[in-house]
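Thread: Newbie trying to understand structure tokens

Hi all, I'm a second-year student working on a class project, and my supervisor (Dr. K.) asked me to get a predicted structure for one chain before our next meeting. I've only ever worked with sequences, so writing a 3D structure as a token string is new to me. If someone could post the tokens and maybe explain what I'm looking at, I'd be very grateful. Here's the chain:
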Amino acid sequence: MKTICITFVLFLSTFVQAQTTATISEKQQTISWIGKAAVGGYAPEGTLEIKTASITFTSEEIMDLQLVVDMKSLEQENKQLRDHLLEKDFFYTEKYPEATFKLSMATPINNGKVQLKGMMTIRGETQEENIEATVVYSEENITLQFNHTMDRTRYGVNHNSPTLFKRIKENAIADDFVLKGKLMLSDDK
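---
Reply by user tm_fold:
Sure, no problem. This is what the structure looks like when written as tokens:
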């Protein structure tokens, strides 16, 4: 019995040591967004800055992930479009300056891939998202790379939606947009 208890304690201490918490590095990190017109090939792109990010992981699973995006950092080369995206028609950043993602449950890493099931909050609306990501990790660092399509209308971003406003033709904006990025997080030690 004593041998079993000692073995269990050693196993438990090994497991705890293998668990790592990492946060976003000091350097600024951004994610990209891509929108598109409902008709035609117009597809504006821009960036958003990550405000904070933290992750707890082992070599086999991600146990916790929390991400905060600074919505006021939204950039786009067309100043008029950028300013409009910051206003009430779109992301209303004066009232909702942050967007967040929080992992709902621990998720296994399989062959460098992971399904991040969690709650995304944009413009005060919270919805479940399932984001596929590629994972590269070492004992002290982790990198998540993703390319995720999501529906803006689920978050109350309804301006010129062809789904909600059937009569809109030339100014219709597709409901789906893409978030993509590569987040590098480092051990807190």
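A couple of things are worth pointing out once you decode it. The first helix runs from residue 2 to 18. Residues 1-17 have pLDDT under 50 and may be disordered. Feel free to ask follow-ups in this thread.
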